[in-house]
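This section describes the prediction task in plain terms. A model, or a person checking by hand, is given the sequence of a single protein chain and must write out its three-dimensional structure as a string of tokens. No templates, partner chains or ligands are provided. The sample shown here is typical of the held-out split.
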Amino acid sequence: MAPTACFCLCIGLLLWQSSRQLGAAAAASSSGSGSGGCEFAFDMLHPLDPIRKIRSEAGTVDYFDEANQQLLCAGAFFIPVVIDYRGLVLPRYANGGVLALAQQGTGIVGWTFPGCPEAYQKFRQGDVIALRPGVPHWFYNDGGNNEPLELIMFYDINTNSNQLQPQHKDFTFAGSNSNRSRNIFKGLTTKSISQSLEINQDLATRLQGPSNDTRGTIVRVPNGLRLRLAAQLNLNTTTATQLQDEEHETGQAQPGRQSKTLLPDNRYLNCLMKVIMNLEDPHSRRITRLTGDSFPILNSLGLSVERGTLKPNEIVSPYYTINAQTVVYVTGGSARLQVVDNRGVAVLNDALRQGQLLVIPQYYVVLIEAGQDAGFEYVAFKTNANPLISRIAGPGSVLRGLPVGVIAASYNFSTADAIKIKNSRGNDERAV
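The expected answer:
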């Protein structure tokens, strides 16, 4: 039994690790890009600009080119969202996991996991919200002084959780967003809605929304939402109490037994899963990360996020990411990035400015030079919960790990020069 179990476990891990590569291959075949597919998608990289802005009643969404081969092969869908004061992003769910970073402002996020009580929580600038595929959610800007709420949202569509075509799909419960997504109730007959929800047909018709509704998917709540916000520290206790009450009402719980032992399919853990974590670093380091180690829900999403701030003219020495694709979005300033592939070819040597997006492929070597005026600020999403980053120089780097003799022989250097190369950047930890 033990060898069989071990074999099955190994096969399961291999299948899990290969799901993203299979998704990328499917993306290539479905994109109509020809015989090359993802094989040639990263031969030349280009910074991406938004191609259109869609305005709703109380906010805007910027869209990048979904057909871009580099985004498809990275399995990424990316949108910056701006929500006006008292603006509500109508409830929806998507076919991929999502990470949303609050770039500016404060707000409230609500989510509904199957079988769990209603849940919503306040978040602030620097917080990251992580939501699983298919989980309905909404956002609301409750900030004062008419301050907009800016969210940077990354969707992962190349996972085994998405068995549709490798393309982002929003399923909305209300409103419409041009031809991208429409109220799902519009596709059901009024009579069926009335009977299944046990409501009258007039209410069912209103649930489908008017045919001339032009508010979009971000609507204004004139008098604001009135919500009873549980304190963050007490949120888990509140949810656990609700679950216990539900079980006693339905007769599922037995006296003297803990409710979590009775909840099927890890419902207890799913309902109490923390979905918000702050990315700000108390030690004021230049580059901070959220990974599956510090934010466990990222392990189920297979994603992580990084925020970086570089001073003017500061250089990040060469590095590469071993086990993840990286999608970089510039939030401030500019930088020149050089990216090199296995052929020793610079597939990118270009400036990246605020508002632009760049896909950096797995294993490709990157060097960053911050702009001379405003420095460089960015957010990077990686397609692995615990990415492994290998530095070329500095502490713990490739060069630091090579014997002096190997360096000297590889480059035909003298021993003295090889020592200089090996110890380059000294103890500078800022590289990545």
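For orientation: Confidence is low (pLDDT under 50) at residues 1-36, 231-264.
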